[in-house]
# Entry
Amino acid sequence: MVCRSLVKNALRTAARLGLLTGEERRREGRRNLPNVVRIVSREWLAWLALGLKPIGVKKITPTAKDHKREGSCASEPVCAAGGQQAGLAAHAREKPRHG
# Structure
């Protein structure tokens, strides 16, 4: 995962060099809209117009809100870990206590 500050610095540097513009879309009291980054550089636009497959770019689709409300998978025990925990508990019960 790329560090956010690295990406922010790269965007600021590219904007300072006149290669792109960035627009933050803040909304008071609500969730911010995604930032808009526009490529201004003719060289970059010409390269993109070639239609080459971009490297490291993924199409992002928003997550459905109802999916977030369901129980997370992290709260459910993993089968292997659940079995280990049950085995340890059973093993602890089998040990005779001295004393």
DSSP finds four helices and two strands in the chain. The beta strands are 20-25, 33-39.
